Amino acid sequence: MRTYIQQCWYILFITLFFNSCLKLDPFLFKKEGVSEYLLYNYNEKTECSDALTYLDAQKYPRAVTREISMKSGNETIYAVLLTDSSASVSSDDTIILYFHGTSKHIDHYWKRACLLHATGYPVLIVDYRGYGKSTGDPTEDGIYMDGRTAYEYIRDSLGNPQVIVYAYSLATLVGCDVAGVYKPDRLIKLILEAAIGSVETMVEDASYLNLPGNFLTTIKGDNKEKIKNVYIPLLWMHGTKDETLNRETNGVPVWNNYPGISGYYIIASGAGHTDIPQILSYDRYLKCLKDFIKDNSVKDPFLLPKKI
Amino acid sequence: MIVTKLFLFFSVIIMGLLCSCSSIRQLQPLDKGQSAVSASLGGPFTQVGSVYIPLPLLSIGYNRGIVEKKLDIETGFNFTQALFGIMDIDASLNYRPFQPEHWIPGLIVSPGFFIMTDFKPESFRFYPVLCITGFWKINEYFYIYSGIENWFELSKKRYDGNFQKYHWLKTPYIGFDIGKRKLRFQFETKIYTPDLKNTGRPTKNIGFGEHGILGIFFGWIYTFAKDKK
Question: Does the pTM exceed 0.90?
């Protein structure tokens, strides 16, 4: 009898021990809160740090900005709209919905947003819950909800323009989610930069081994599956030296699973995770985007774009 | 931008790999029925924020002599992984074909296995391992040792659908063992996968240029007196 009770205690202890475990989910989201967005006055080191210098030198006009808040579930998320001097968007326009990476907040990606605005289209950059001024804490389902909320805000409150989704790094999950959910009447194109394959892939790339991602995180983040619902034209960009999201294990499987008929990719030779625009050169980066958005093609012969 | 927390995320992930054979070497042969317990702390130098630190991986082990001075069995349990709900255990046999004599090293051949699971059927992982250790007895209180851990990945395909590129992971190590018969301490440094590039992965580690990952471990062994029965 005593042995039996002892065994029960052991089983209970082991069960409790292994069920009260840590998970690393929060570590994937490097949120940082702010009370105000600094935008052009943000001085910390960021990606595309010389983009504003380039844009000023090329005499691109600085965008007119408008801060927007919207309800996403129980949270309030914030976004910034970049427009030209007319400061308005109508159903005849096309807007770029920019899902930034999972680091810090809008200010950190502001220069990139300005680059996208230099394509000649208005840009809406969104902070997910917990980021910047947005309330709450980021979760996988939460950031998907925030992405959908931003799209619906454009549709319902911003004049229902055509939408091009531009998503970067881990936020390509949000981009693929939105692009797979809404039908292509107004959501017309998807651009993925340094796409993640899945959180599983990140785990396995880090360990060299076939280790299950659920050992350490409950986040699935399976872009390889999400992309199967995307039929709108796709432009995928990935650097050959991306050490955060390896191109072969992350980007290529996403590309291979794209079921649409109008896909292009740009392999940026020598580019890492954050510097594709610089490595391509800002001129060529902008030209590629403009070509893809306007003509649904990529014409730069040096970039070796491929069409499915 | 690669961020501090993201580094930490992957740093903890990599610990799963880098605990293959126990980082405690039971150099002194055990008599039949004799036991020893051990603990080790340390890990690969990994960038966390702006600095590189050895990951604090804690494991405990138990050895028991099977054949007088020739063969003992070793089991280990990794605590750090357990905090993440992963049962991470290893077991091996330590076969000692000969003991050190003057400058001729003693040899320990340790075939074993490593199991990781979070109790979901699809997440069960089994890895055969083979450690080969040579050691020199400088005097009664001081040993030097060196060897290689070999970890074998049997899967052809990864869980995420990509092909498993690496099937034989090698980790050479060198260390010293100091102390009295009952209580001894070990310090070991190892180079994980020196033949593989340490770039192209989300973690940043100290290696030799673009290859390998440097790790250090500190260990403690307590050997129980032989049962006189």
Answer: no
